[in-house]
Amino acid sequence: MTETSPLRIGTRGSPLALAQAHEVRARLAAAHPDLAIPGAIEIVVIKTTGDMVLDRTLASIGGKGLFTKEIDEAQLESRIDIAVHSMKDVPTVLPPGLDLPCVLEREDTRDAFLCLRAARLADLPAGAVVGTASLRRGAQILYRRPDLRVEPLRGNVQTRLRKLEEGVVDATLLAMAGLRRLGLADRATSALETAEMLPAVAQGAIGVTCRSGDEAAHRRLAPLNHAPSHLRVRAERAFLAVLDGSCRTPIGGLAEIGGNTMTFRGLVIRPDGSEAHALRLSGPAAAPEALGRAAGEDLLGRCGPGFFTVRDGAEPAR
How far apart are CA 24 and CA 124, in angstroms? Predict the structure, then answer.
């Protein structure tokens, strides 16, 4: 990026990813008058492995990083200046040379229940099929409702909504934040409160990365950062890092701030839903990583070796 070249925003090409990139572009233009000039910001679409492989679950093709690897490479090679990510897709350790200076104000962290035949997850009849690509969602569903069937369901939001309407599955779960950003919140049958379905780490948060030495990008992004949201995300990612979490492991985590105190809820659960461990800890909001690490170490100590291995004879929550 120079005074005469556009600021290049890298993003995936899904409707949700593009909506998030356009939100960042609008906020940049509002914060910096020179970026409001036509052509001052360019959105660059980058296809990732997660976008290209749609016939297998994320866990089976490598877990986290599938939606960020190619975008990270473009950044490090200076083909883009900044990148917009759904923070729940971002690995806990960024590639050397990249920073995360900006997290936008966080949206609704809850999961949405979508179904044409029941108002709530609890109302589904025994044997109903719930489609999800998330081991976290699938495991929590089976923990509460072992009488349901969980089947893999990949694709963007629009694809999953279409498959629901076609009767491929009886119900599915999506992030409320994504539905809101797409103007589709009315498609949710109900919202699952976090006491019923603990969200993914950093769910509902949009993060913007840039190269470590790019002072201009850091300066541009500073006004967009929402400090409380950033603190919450830092705590949750520290928790996940201790547990070495990925798409292969069912883990939920949510940090919330009240005054100067942060409260953290964490969950680890077997993929087949047969066993779960949960906790709640509080600490200073100014020390988010310490609280997240303490929560992760606590749960790690409870689980023991092989906790995330599906027991013999059990059907995994894919």
Answer: 38
Instruction: Cite the beta strand spans of 159-205 per DSSP E.
Output: 171-175, 190-192
Which CATH code fits 227-318?
Answer: 3.30.160.40
Q: Residue 4 in 3-state DSSP?
A: coil
CATH no., domain 7-105+205-225: 3.40.190.10
Sheet holding 261-269, edge to edge: 251-258, 261-269, 276-284
Looking at residue 309, its pLDDT comes to: 59
Rounded to an integer, the average pLDDT of 17-24 is 97
Annotated catalytic residue 111: no
pLDDT of residue 52: 55
What pTM did the predictor assign? 0.90
For 111-192, which CATH class?
Answer: alpha beta
Q: What's the whole-number mean pLDDT along residues 122-126?
A: 96
Strands of 190-192's sheet in order across? 149-151, 129-131, 171-175, 111-115, 190-192
Provide the 10 A C-beta neighbour count for residue 162: 12
Residue corresponding to tokens 């279409």: 162
CA distances to 26, 70, 83, 257 from 47, rounded to whole Å, are 23, 7, 13, 36
Judge whether 31 and 197 are in contact, CB under 8 Å.
no
Catalytic pick from 34, 55, 72, 89? 89
Query: pLDDT digit string (tens) for 251-274?
Result: 999 999 999 999 999 999 998 999
Q: Do the domains at 111-192 and 227-318 have one common CATH topology?
A: no
Chain centre distance of CA 28: 23
